[in-house]
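The instructor's notes for this session suggest beginning with a concrete chain rather than abstract definitions. Hand out the sequence below and ask the class to guess, before any prediction is shown, which regions might be ordered.
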Amino acid sequence: MAENMRDELLFEPKNGYEGMEVRERLACEAYCEDYKAFIETARTERECVKEAIRQAEEAGFAAFPMGSDALPGKKLYRSVGGKALILAVLGDAPLSEGVNIAAAHVDAPRLDLKQLPVYEDGEIAYFKTHYYGGIKKYQWTALPLELHGVVALKNGETIEVSIGRDPADPAFVITDLLPHLAADQMKKTLSEAIPGESLNILAGSIPYDDEGGDKVKLAVLSILNDKYGITEEDLLSAELEAVPALAVRDIGIDRSMIGAYGHDDRSCAYAELKAILETETPVRTAVCILADKEEIGSEGVSGMQSEAFESFMEDLCELSGGVRLRRCFEKSFCVSADVCNGFDPNFPEVSEKRNAARLNYGMGICKFTGARGKSSTNDASAETVAKLRKIFADNGVVWQMAELGKVDQGGGGTVAVYMSRRNIETIDAGVPLLSMHAPYEVAAKFDCYMTYKGVKAFYKDR
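After discussion, reveal the predicted structure:
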């Protein structure tokens, strides 16, 4: 009797591997191999969108609105400047009944090259950088880096740049001070030890055979010109990003985790992408958003605060018989698929253990994010949480509740707040991470798989 009461009344999450069937474990491993291949290839938001479009077109998606109609099962996508992507699979129900939206972001913390990045000092050439998103600056020194991005020329041509991804390429690095001479540096706080303006990337050291000054700088620019046909002036209209030159690897002797740059938020973005590529004629139209600029406040044309999403949905509503956009939004449901922090026993003091996500316990549902007194948060309603619980329960999705650390410790945000401003019922849910925002983050394979399974179940729900 007491045991029955325990089962009936207590909520006791358990490790997802307990009782996991062999078939499910094999499916988990297969999914994670695909995810590893994606995140190894897609190192920037532009590369994520490019790879997502490639996979979408292979799955039968077509650019919207060219040759479009409103037939159920129709698969459409729209790129937002090559830096964000929106995909949809039209459902049987009219858009007046709302749509199911999963929204993730594909940008990640990194170092951007400045507008005039190349300079020489002490007969060494460097690239000046401006860090993007919330980083611990000291983590980016003495670390191999790659350079990715585009250079836009005045004639309208755009040149893609990638240096360091191929094993035969050179890598880059930001130097750090040797401990023998770091007495003053070691007295500083971690946030002060490496100033932002010191994050200068080693670019070269051989001087150009020339009589003028800045001969090493000239040699570096000469190499870039030979390889890409660009000049220093062309760098004024470039977007070049330095990211860690670290391979995606299984972590742990049991291979249960994945180490990679950019899990936040590509672990959720890939789950969304994979799920919608496998969705065939849902009841309600399924929409997948791969957004940009979340790490800096979702600003800009490609961020979730822009009206690119409204433009896509308005066109979809018009295609579907002139449905009013606001009527569609008020009946819609959005999962803001973003990562949460996993409980780390090395740093237990920042988490409230009873309400922290744990690795291998499944997709983490965050009722709210924000900071301290729930500022800048969506704070999903009780009904919204219950709705997602039911979807997951009906589809065998392992999940857990999560918070972003202790109440007074800090906090953070996602795109959820911007979706709810559109009068769309919204909740956060995603993959728990260790070392979030570090150059090398860790995610559990089980949680990645359950996030994909959760989004897929959500897409097919009415």
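Then share the key points. The domain at 2-108+261-460 is CATH 3.40.630.10 (Aminopeptidase). The chain has a mean pLDDT of 94.
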